[in-house]
Write a structure and sequence with these properties.
- There is one protein chain.
- The chain is α/β, with parallel strands linked by helices.
- The protein folds into 3 domains: 69 residues; 207 residues, Rossmann fold (3-Layer(aba) Sandwich); 91 residues, Rossmann fold (3-Layer(aba) Sandwich), CATH 3.40.50.1100.
- Helix content is 37%, strand content 16%.
- The strands form 3 sheets. The chain has a 6-stranded mixed β-sheet, sandwiched between helices.
- α6 links the parallel β7 and β8.
- α8 crosses α9.
- The longest helix is centred in the middle third of the chain and has 15 residues.
- The termini are far apart.
Length: 392
Protein backbone atom coordinates (compact mmCIF):
# COMPACT_ATOMS: atom_id res chain seq x y z
CA UNK A 1 0.00 0.00 0.00
CA UNK A 2 1.20 3.49 -0.82
CA UNK A 3 2.32 5.44 2.25
CA UNK A 4 -0.43 8.05 2.48
CA UNK A 5 0.52 10.80 4.90
CA UNK A 6 -1.53 11.82 7.91
CA UNK A 7 -3.22 15.18 7.44
CA UNK A 8 -3.21 16.02 11.15
CA UNK A 9 -2.96 19.79 11.72
CA UNK A 10 -3.45 20.50 15.40
CA UNK A 11 -5.22 19.57 18.62
CA UNK A 12 -8.29 21.54 19.69
CA UNK A 13 -10.10 21.61 23.03
CA UNK A 14 -13.65 20.32 22.64
CA UNK A 15 -14.86 22.68 25.38
CA UNK A 16 -13.05 26.03 25.20
CA UNK A 17 -11.58 25.79 21.69
CA UNK A 18 -7.95 26.42 22.63
CA UNK A 19 -5.47 25.02 20.09
CA UNK A 20 -2.30 23.00 20.70
CA UNK A 21 0.54 21.67 18.53
CA UNK A 22 -0.01 18.11 17.35
CA UNK A 23 3.69 17.22 17.47
CA UNK A 24 3.93 17.69 21.24
CA UNK A 25 2.77 15.50 24.13
CA UNK A 26 -0.55 16.69 25.53
CA UNK A 27 -3.19 15.27 27.84
CA UNK A 28 -6.21 17.38 28.72
CA UNK A 29 -6.61 21.04 27.79
CA UNK A 30 -4.16 23.18 29.72
CA UNK A 31 -6.76 25.94 30.10
CA UNK A 32 -10.01 24.24 31.09
CA UNK A 33 -9.03 20.62 31.73
CA UNK A 34 -11.35 19.16 29.11
CA UNK A 35 -10.86 16.76 26.19
CA UNK A 36 -8.59 17.48 23.20
CA UNK A 37 -9.35 16.24 19.69
CA UNK A 38 -6.97 15.91 16.73
CA UNK A 39 -8.05 18.06 13.79
CA UNK A 40 -7.14 17.21 10.18
CA UNK A 41 -6.71 19.12 6.93
CA UNK A 42 -9.72 17.47 5.31
CA UNK A 43 -9.34 19.41 2.06
CA UNK A 44 -5.91 17.87 1.64
CA UNK A 45 -7.24 14.46 2.68
CA UNK A 46 -9.85 14.67 -0.10
CA UNK A 47 -7.05 14.39 -2.67
CA UNK A 48 -6.55 10.70 -1.84
CA UNK A 49 -9.65 9.69 0.12
CA UNK A 50 -12.12 8.99 -2.66
CA UNK A 51 -14.39 5.93 -2.60
CA UNK A 52 -12.61 4.56 -5.67
CA UNK A 53 -9.16 5.00 -4.11
CA UNK A 54 -10.18 3.53 -0.77
CA UNK A 55 -11.57 0.44 -2.51
CA UNK A 56 -8.09 -0.30 -3.93
CA UNK A 57 -6.43 -0.38 -0.52
CA UNK A 58 -5.20 -3.72 0.76
CA UNK A 59 -4.79 -2.79 4.42
CA UNK A 60 -7.74 -3.76 6.63
CA UNK A 61 -6.86 -2.40 10.05
CA UNK A 62 -7.23 0.95 11.82
CA UNK A 63 -4.69 2.57 9.48
CA UNK A 64 -6.84 2.00 6.37
CA UNK A 65 -7.73 5.70 6.14
CA UNK A 66 -4.43 6.98 7.48
CA UNK A 67 -4.99 10.51 6.18
CA UNK A 68 -7.44 11.04 9.05
CA UNK A 69 -5.43 9.17 11.66
CA UNK A 70 -2.84 10.90 13.87
CA UNK A 71 0.43 9.05 13.16
CA UNK A 72 2.74 10.60 10.55
CA UNK A 73 5.55 8.09 10.08
CA UNK A 74 4.69 4.63 8.77
CA UNK A 75 7.24 2.93 11.03
CA UNK A 76 5.18 3.88 14.10
CA UNK A 77 1.88 2.52 12.77
CA UNK A 78 2.02 -0.70 14.75
CA UNK A 79 -0.70 -3.30 14.30
CA UNK A 80 -1.78 -6.67 15.64
CA UNK A 81 -4.59 -6.89 13.08
CA UNK A 82 -7.14 -4.75 14.94
CA UNK A 83 -10.21 -3.37 13.24
CA UNK A 84 -12.32 -4.33 10.22
CA UNK A 85 -14.48 -6.51 12.42
CA UNK A 86 -17.50 -8.22 10.84
CA UNK A 87 -21.07 -6.99 10.88
CA UNK A 88 -23.35 -9.97 11.50
CA UNK A 89 -27.08 -9.93 10.82
CA UNK A 90 -28.98 -11.31 13.80
CA UNK A 91 -31.85 -12.95 11.93
CA UNK A 92 -33.08 -15.18 14.76
CA UNK A 93 -32.97 -12.50 17.46
CA UNK A 94 -34.38 -9.99 15.02
CA UNK A 95 -37.45 -12.19 14.49
CA UNK A 96 -37.97 -12.46 18.24
CA UNK A 97 -37.86 -8.66 18.60
CA UNK A 98 -39.86 -8.01 15.43
CA UNK A 99 -36.93 -6.22 13.76
CA UNK A 100 -36.08 -6.81 10.10
CA UNK A 101 -32.56 -5.37 10.12
CA UNK A 102 -30.78 -6.08 13.40
CA UNK A 103 -26.99 -6.32 13.23
CA UNK A 104 -24.06 -6.88 15.58
CA UNK A 105 -20.62 -5.42 14.92
CA UNK A 106 -18.53 -8.09 16.57
CA UNK A 107 -15.64 -6.30 18.26
CA UNK A 108 -14.79 -9.51 20.09
CA UNK A 109 -12.79 -10.50 17.00
CA UNK A 110 -10.14 -7.86 17.72
CA UNK A 111 -6.65 -9.11 18.77
CA UNK A 112 -7.22 -8.83 22.53
CA UNK A 113 -10.86 -9.87 22.30
CA UNK A 114 -12.41 -6.41 22.71
CA UNK A 115 -12.77 -3.04 21.00
CA UNK A 116 -10.08 -1.69 23.34
CA UNK A 117 -7.51 -2.92 20.83
CA UNK A 118 -8.39 -0.05 18.51
CA UNK A 119 -7.91 2.83 20.90
CA UNK A 120 -4.77 1.53 22.56
CA UNK A 121 -3.15 0.72 19.22
CA UNK A 122 -3.62 4.35 18.13
CA UNK A 123 -2.56 5.80 21.49
CA UNK A 124 0.60 3.70 21.77
CA UNK A 125 1.53 4.34 18.13
CA UNK A 126 1.27 8.11 18.51
CA UNK A 127 3.03 7.94 21.86
CA UNK A 128 5.94 6.13 20.25
CA UNK A 129 6.12 8.80 17.55
CA UNK A 130 6.26 11.46 20.29
CA UNK A 131 9.11 9.64 22.05
CA UNK A 132 7.13 7.95 24.85
CA UNK A 133 8.65 4.82 26.40
CA UNK A 134 6.37 4.34 29.45
CA UNK A 135 2.57 4.36 29.34
CA UNK A 136 0.21 4.37 32.32
CA UNK A 137 -3.53 3.89 32.65
CA UNK A 138 -6.35 2.76 34.93
CA UNK A 139 -8.55 -0.02 33.59
CA UNK A 140 -11.46 -2.23 34.47
CA UNK A 141 -9.43 -4.95 32.76
CA UNK A 142 -9.79 -5.11 29.00
CA UNK A 143 -8.13 -1.78 28.19
CA UNK A 144 -5.20 -2.76 30.39
CA UNK A 145 -4.82 -5.99 28.45
CA UNK A 146 -4.84 -4.06 25.17
CA UNK A 147 -2.23 -1.60 26.43
CA UNK A 148 -0.05 -4.50 27.60
CA UNK A 149 -0.34 -6.16 24.19
CA UNK A 150 0.62 -3.11 22.15
CA UNK A 151 3.45 -2.01 24.43
CA UNK A 152 4.84 -5.55 24.32
CA UNK A 153 4.65 -5.50 20.52
CA UNK A 154 6.36 -2.09 20.44
CA UNK A 155 9.00 -2.96 23.07
CA UNK A 156 7.70 -0.22 25.37
CA UNK A 157 6.55 -0.37 29.00
CA UNK A 158 3.02 -0.38 30.44
CA UNK A 159 1.88 0.40 33.99
CA UNK A 160 -1.72 -0.62 34.64
CA UNK A 161 -3.91 0.08 37.70
CA UNK A 162 -6.92 -2.23 37.97
CA UNK A 163 -9.68 -2.83 40.58
CA UNK A 164 -9.08 -6.04 42.52
CA UNK A 165 -12.37 -7.56 41.35
CA UNK A 166 -11.37 -7.52 37.66
CA UNK A 167 -11.64 -10.94 35.95
CA UNK A 168 -8.74 -13.20 36.89
CA UNK A 169 -8.12 -14.21 33.28
CA UNK A 170 -7.63 -10.57 32.24
CA UNK A 171 -5.31 -9.89 35.16
CA UNK A 172 -3.16 -12.84 34.04
CA UNK A 173 -3.28 -11.54 30.46
CA UNK A 174 -1.93 -8.14 31.57
CA UNK A 175 0.87 -9.67 33.65
CA UNK A 176 1.93 -12.28 31.10
CA UNK A 177 2.29 -9.62 28.41
CA UNK A 178 4.83 -7.86 30.58
CA UNK A 179 2.95 -4.91 32.04
CA UNK A 180 3.43 -3.75 35.60
CA UNK A 181 0.08 -4.50 37.25
CA UNK A 182 -1.13 -2.75 40.39
CA UNK A 183 -4.38 -3.95 42.00
CA UNK A 184 -6.52 -1.28 43.65
CA UNK A 185 -9.17 -1.37 46.39
CA UNK A 186 -12.12 0.43 44.79
CA UNK A 187 -13.60 1.10 41.37
CA UNK A 188 -12.15 2.55 38.17
CA UNK A 189 -12.23 6.11 39.56
CA UNK A 190 -9.93 5.08 42.43
CA UNK A 191 -7.64 3.27 39.97
CA UNK A 192 -7.64 6.45 37.91
CA UNK A 193 -6.40 8.55 40.81
CA UNK A 194 -3.64 6.05 41.60
CA UNK A 195 -2.57 5.93 37.95
CA UNK A 196 -2.53 9.73 37.75
CA UNK A 197 -0.36 10.04 40.86
CA UNK A 198 2.11 7.41 39.64
CA UNK A 199 2.21 8.91 36.16
CA UNK A 200 3.03 12.39 37.43
CA UNK A 201 5.67 11.06 39.82
CA UNK A 202 7.45 8.95 37.19
CA UNK A 203 6.79 11.06 34.07
CA UNK A 204 4.78 8.28 32.40
CA UNK A 205 2.42 9.15 29.54
CA UNK A 206 -1.22 8.68 30.58
CA UNK A 207 -3.54 6.94 28.14
CA UNK A 208 -6.54 7.09 30.46
CA UNK A 209 -9.90 7.30 28.66
CA UNK A 210 -10.19 10.62 26.79
CA UNK A 211 -7.44 12.16 28.95
CA UNK A 212 -5.16 12.10 25.92
CA UNK A 213 -6.15 12.85 22.31
CA UNK A 214 -5.45 9.57 20.52
CA UNK A 215 -7.49 6.66 21.90
CA UNK A 216 -10.58 8.37 20.48
CA UNK A 217 -8.97 8.24 17.02
CA UNK A 218 -8.57 4.49 17.25
CA UNK A 219 -12.17 4.13 18.41
CA UNK A 220 -13.52 6.37 15.65
CA UNK A 221 -12.42 3.72 13.15
CA UNK A 222 -15.53 1.77 14.20
CA UNK A 223 -17.54 4.57 12.57
CA UNK A 224 -15.28 4.73 9.51
CA UNK A 225 -15.70 0.99 8.98
CA UNK A 226 -19.42 1.05 9.58
CA UNK A 227 -19.90 3.56 6.76
CA UNK A 228 -17.75 1.63 4.32
CA UNK A 229 -19.23 -1.77 5.24
CA UNK A 230 -22.73 -0.40 4.57
CA UNK A 231 -21.61 1.01 1.19
CA UNK A 232 -21.18 4.57 2.47
CA UNK A 233 -24.49 4.79 4.24
CA UNK A 234 -25.15 4.70 7.98
CA UNK A 235 -27.65 2.69 10.02
CA UNK A 236 -30.72 4.29 11.54
CA UNK A 237 -29.72 3.48 15.12
CA UNK A 238 -26.50 2.59 16.94
CA UNK A 239 -26.84 1.02 20.39
CA UNK A 240 -23.67 1.28 22.42
CA UNK A 241 -22.64 0.18 25.95
CA UNK A 242 -21.24 3.26 27.64
CA UNK A 243 -18.62 3.59 30.35
CA UNK A 244 -16.02 6.21 29.48
CA UNK A 245 -17.77 6.74 26.15
CA UNK A 246 -14.75 7.00 23.85
CA UNK A 247 -16.38 4.80 21.22
CA UNK A 248 -19.65 6.69 20.97
CA UNK A 249 -17.97 10.10 20.72
CA UNK A 250 -15.29 8.73 18.41
CA UNK A 251 -17.90 7.50 15.95
CA UNK A 252 -19.71 10.83 16.13
CA UNK A 253 -16.42 12.53 15.21
CA UNK A 254 -15.87 10.04 12.39
CA UNK A 255 -19.26 10.76 10.83
CA UNK A 256 -18.58 14.50 10.74
CA UNK A 257 -15.20 13.94 9.08
CA UNK A 258 -16.67 11.52 6.53
CA UNK A 259 -19.37 14.03 5.57
CA UNK A 260 -16.80 16.82 5.13
CA UNK A 261 -14.78 14.47 2.92
CA UNK A 262 -17.87 13.87 0.79
CA UNK A 263 -17.96 10.14 1.54
CA UNK A 264 -21.37 10.18 3.27
CA UNK A 265 -24.35 12.52 3.42
CA UNK A 266 -25.73 14.41 6.39
CA UNK A 267 -27.98 11.62 7.70
CA UNK A 268 -26.91 10.41 11.14
CA UNK A 269 -27.87 7.39 13.23
CA UNK A 270 -29.73 7.88 16.47
CA UNK A 271 -27.08 7.18 19.10
CA UNK A 272 -28.20 5.17 22.13
CA UNK A 273 -26.15 4.93 25.30
CA UNK A 274 -26.68 1.88 27.54
CA UNK A 275 -25.57 1.70 31.16
CA UNK A 276 -26.24 -0.69 34.08
CA UNK A 277 -28.94 0.36 36.53
CA UNK A 278 -26.33 0.25 39.31
CA UNK A 279 -24.18 2.88 37.57
CA UNK A 280 -26.03 5.20 35.18
CA UNK A 281 -24.62 8.75 35.36
CA UNK A 282 -25.11 9.40 31.63
CA UNK A 283 -28.69 8.10 31.67
CA UNK A 284 -29.57 10.33 34.61
CA UNK A 285 -27.94 13.42 33.10
CA UNK A 286 -29.66 12.82 29.75
CA UNK A 287 -33.08 12.51 31.35
CA UNK A 288 -32.49 15.57 33.56
CA UNK A 289 -31.34 17.71 30.64
CA UNK A 290 -27.90 18.28 32.16
CA UNK A 291 -24.81 19.18 30.13
CA UNK A 292 -22.49 17.30 32.49
CA UNK A 293 -23.10 14.09 34.46
CA UNK A 294 -22.76 14.08 38.22
CA UNK A 295 -20.68 11.16 39.56
CA UNK A 296 -22.75 8.08 40.44
CA UNK A 297 -22.44 7.09 44.08
CA UNK A 298 -22.13 3.47 45.25
CA UNK A 299 -21.70 2.21 41.68
CA UNK A 300 -22.20 -1.51 41.24
CA UNK A 301 -22.56 -3.96 38.34
CA UNK A 302 -20.86 -7.16 37.27
CA UNK A 303 -20.29 -5.48 33.87
CA UNK A 304 -17.06 -3.80 34.94
CA UNK A 305 -16.42 -1.99 31.66
CA UNK A 306 -19.58 0.11 32.03
CA UNK A 307 -19.35 0.46 35.80
CA UNK A 308 -17.83 3.93 35.44
CA UNK A 309 -19.09 6.44 38.06
CA UNK A 310 -17.88 9.51 36.14
CA UNK A 311 -16.50 10.16 32.65
CA UNK A 312 -14.32 13.08 31.60
CA UNK A 313 -16.09 13.09 28.22
CA UNK A 314 -19.60 13.18 29.70
CA UNK A 315 -20.50 16.40 27.85
CA UNK A 316 -19.39 14.90 24.52
CA UNK A 317 -21.46 11.75 25.06
CA UNK A 318 -24.55 13.75 25.98
CA UNK A 319 -24.02 16.08 23.03
CA UNK A 320 -23.90 13.16 20.57
CA UNK A 321 -27.08 11.65 22.04
CA UNK A 322 -29.00 14.91 21.78
CA UNK A 323 -27.72 15.99 18.36
CA UNK A 324 -28.65 12.59 16.94
CA UNK A 325 -32.11 12.52 18.57
CA UNK A 326 -30.97 9.42 20.39
CA UNK A 327 -31.53 8.34 23.96
CA UNK A 328 -29.95 6.76 27.04
CA UNK A 329 -31.27 3.72 28.87
CA UNK A 330 -30.38 1.67 31.96
CA UNK A 331 -30.65 -2.12 32.22
CA UNK A 332 -30.41 -4.52 35.16
CA UNK A 333 -27.58 -6.99 35.73
CA UNK A 334 -30.01 -9.91 35.78
CA UNK A 335 -31.29 -8.88 32.34
CA UNK A 336 -27.73 -8.59 31.02
CA UNK A 337 -26.89 -12.10 32.21
CA UNK A 338 -29.97 -13.55 30.49
CA UNK A 339 -29.15 -11.69 27.26
CA UNK A 340 -25.67 -13.25 27.18
CA UNK A 341 -27.24 -16.71 27.20
CA UNK A 342 -29.99 -15.74 24.75
CA UNK A 343 -27.57 -14.50 22.08
CA UNK A 344 -25.34 -17.55 22.47
CA UNK A 345 -28.31 -19.89 22.08
CA UNK A 346 -30.01 -17.98 19.25
CA UNK A 347 -27.05 -16.84 17.16
CA UNK A 348 -23.99 -18.84 18.27
CA UNK A 349 -22.14 -15.75 19.49
CA UNK A 350 -20.75 -15.39 23.00
CA UNK A 351 -20.38 -11.79 24.12
CA UNK A 352 -19.22 -10.08 27.29
CA UNK A 353 -21.68 -8.54 29.77
CA UNK A 354 -21.13 -4.98 28.53
CA UNK A 355 -22.04 -5.98 24.99
CA UNK A 356 -25.07 -7.98 26.18
CA UNK A 357 -26.47 -4.80 27.71
CA UNK A 358 -27.24 -3.61 24.16
CA UNK A 359 -29.55 -6.60 23.63
CA UNK A 360 -31.57 -5.78 26.71
CA UNK A 361 -31.76 -2.16 25.58
CA UNK A 362 -33.01 -3.23 22.15
CA UNK A 363 -35.90 -5.19 23.62
CA UNK A 364 -36.89 -2.28 25.87
CA UNK A 365 -36.67 0.23 23.02
CA UNK A 366 -38.93 -1.93 20.87
CA UNK A 367 -41.44 -2.09 23.70
CA UNK A 368 -41.50 1.69 24.21
CA UNK A 369 -41.72 2.44 20.48
CA UNK A 370 -38.30 4.09 20.06
CA UNK A 371 -37.36 1.34 17.58
CA UNK A 372 -39.63 0.35 14.69
CA UNK A 373 -39.52 -2.87 12.63
CA UNK A 374 -37.95 -1.26 9.55
CA UNK A 375 -35.03 0.39 11.39
CA UNK A 376 -31.52 -0.69 10.46
CA UNK A 377 -29.96 -1.16 13.90
CA UNK A 378 -26.34 -1.91 14.82
CA UNK A 379 -25.49 -3.22 18.27
CA UNK A 380 -21.87 -2.94 19.31
CA UNK A 381 -20.61 -6.22 20.67
CA UNK A 382 -17.67 -4.57 22.38
CA UNK A 383 -16.03 -7.77 23.57
CA UNK A 384 -16.00 -11.54 23.34
CA UNK A 385 -17.58 -13.61 26.08
CA UNK A 386 -14.32 -15.57 26.11
CA UNK A 387 -12.64 -12.61 27.85
CA UNK A 388 -14.96 -13.03 30.84
CA UNK A 389 -15.18 -16.81 31.40
CA UNK A 390 -16.19 -16.40 35.05
CA UNK A 391 -19.38 -14.60 34.00
CA UNK A 392 -20.73 -17.64 32.17
Amino acid sequence: MKNYDSCIKKLVCTHCGKEFFANEKHGLCGSCGKVLYPIYDLEKAKETLSKKEIQKRKVYNIWRLNEIMPVNEAKYRISLGEGWTPIIKLNNMGRVFGLKNLYLKDEGQNPTGTFKSRGLCAAVAKGLELGVTDFVMPSAGNAGAALAAYTAHANAKAHVFVPKDAPEFILKEIKHMGAELTLVDGLINVAGQKAKEAGLKNNWFSVSTLKEPYRVEGKKTMGLELAEQFDWTLPDVIIYPTGGGTGIVGMWKAFEELETLGLIGNKRPKMVSVQPSGCQPIVRAFKDGEKFAKPWENAHSFAGGIRVPSAIGDYLILQSLRESKGTAIAVDDSEIKKAMYDLAKMEGIMICPEAAATIVATEKLVENGFLVPSDKIVLFGTGSGLTTPNDW
